[in-house]
Amino acid sequence: MRVDQLTFTRFIAAVLVILFHHYRFLPMMHYTNVFVSYFFVLSGFVLAVSQKSRYQHKEDYLLFYTARASRIFPLFLLATLLAVLTGMNAELAGPFNLFLNITGLQSFFPGRVMSYNYPSWSISVELFFYLCFPFLVRFVYNKLSLKKVLGVGLALWAVTQVAVLYLYEIEKLQPSSTKLHDFLFYFPLLHLNQFVAGNILGLLFLRFHKKWTKNYDLHLVVLSMALLGYLNFFRPRFDLFDHNGLLIFLFAPFILLLALNTGKISKIFAARPLIILGEVSFGLYLLAEPLLKGMETVAQTSSWGTKPYFHFALIIILIIATLVYFFFEKPLQQVLKNFFRKMIGPVKTVQPLSKPVIIKLESSKKKVFQEQD
User: Fold this and answer.
1) Domain that holds residue 216
2) Does the pLDDT value for residue 21 go beyond 70?
């Protein structure tokens, strides 16, 4: 099941994160790194609504993992190569750090997570989510009722927030501790609550979308204004640690209502050009830093100002990311997926459990989560 109106929001989030790093022309731009949390929640939602397996056999796991690897690693490795060639974070360069970046393990190693293409820490965290997802489906979402799953998700979020707030207070007393900072901001387990929240949103969507689908344009505008107000006025005045899921209560309803929405906002966001921008956003996010580093090296002797140079550079990066998507990322992803499918062979089928169950929708010919009435 595709929810196309959500795709463009990935592009918006990617641009806001890039602006956080390079061009903070509004007070809110000092805090738009929190949109990495939006990525994590959205990723959990998309996987939940598009899953097709109950993960009862090893072939189910292999198909899922190889499909995710085919989607992530071509561009991930290209961005890492560009980071090496442009000398990004040269002070952290070395064989072991390069190994961590190639394998996507850097987020598990405080003090090394920012080596080479530092935005890829979030992809490293996503890979951990992908590793967990089939087990969450098999042993949590297919075993517990939706109410109990909601309880588990809420408990995970609460425990995580208490833990990170405690660590944040310690970090303020040890500002020179790079490893503590990296553990607090980038360690995968401390972000799992956001992915699980996205999964739960997906379960709610699949369970209630027929009943809840209607025009939510006004609700989406109110949520957007609340988020802008938080980032522009509230966040600058209060020292909050919102990097690891505190804003789920804004991001989660926005994602769910946009997915359910039948109003003009969803129709606009589902336009083909905006969907393409959303698809390109993965490359924009991963390639931005190494490409900017290369451009800065070339432009060191130029007379360009910072602001016009950044505007120009961002357009160039978007064009490059678009070309990479159509002529490298997308074709190679399909080749790899087909290769792995042939290697794995046919997947065994199983009888569904009574509750919750996976049903086959005739209209889409896809199996999706749905709790039995």
Assistant:
1) 4-370
2) yes
